[in-house]
Amino acid sequence: MVSTEDCSTHKAGLSPDSFLKGLNLIPTIDMSLSPTDVVIANNIEIIGYDLVSARPDADIKALARNMFETVLETGTYNRFENPHVYGNPRGHQLISSNRDLHTRVTALESLVSSQGDRINSQDNRISGLQTQIEELKEASEGYRHIRQRFLDVFRRDILGSATARYAGNIDAGNAAAHHGDAVADAGLYEGGFRNDKSLMTIIYGISPDQVLFLRRAGDNASIDIINSRATLKADKNIGVPTDVETAFIKYLLILEDHWGNSPAEDPQSALGQAYSEFWSVHGKYKR
Asked: For position 251, what pLDDT does the model report?
């Protein structure tokens, strides 16, 4: 593509303005008109493009000059394009191809972008499904412990086989049935099996959604505290001692300002110190 300045260097004696006036592309402005009456010309693309045969010793500038003279005399002006175009047939074809290519590239970029958004959406969906699978796996482990307990209690009490190696399964089953498990219980609400969310808050101190947020943020340390306090609260023979409840409330208040941060990340932080304080007090009442 050749600018008006380029054309003038190949058309002897023609300045850019006189070249354009020769094409009737720049109207003569009547200086008697007021500034508001002056019409500003549209942007115009001027192109001369051709394929010529030349001897090795040919005068390239002369060939170019002849080609531009032909464009000047025989070119056509297309006012329906934006910008307008003046040039020979091959020039018009080249600009049309360039614009078509630009349109295709833009459409392709848009398609690639939309595909990228779809891939990201699928990645997020897969990640969410993987998290749910892990949570279901954890919940099923508790159920497995309970079934193991059932079988080994039968072996111990009904068959009279009081073997020490079965004690581990019974203890694990007792823990699964009677100890707090905030993640498994929150899954019951997420799955639509329960809707009394206030019960979760009473037992664990936070809502099912907050429990699942901690789980998915990898904050297992906070979940351990929540489960341990719930285990005491569910034991009618112990309940939650005042000093444990005080340490638990303090921990939750600090946790509110540090959602997604595990106390294990910085034991010297306020959250880390509250974490240590809770376990120090809780240890006196460990079941």
From this structure: 95
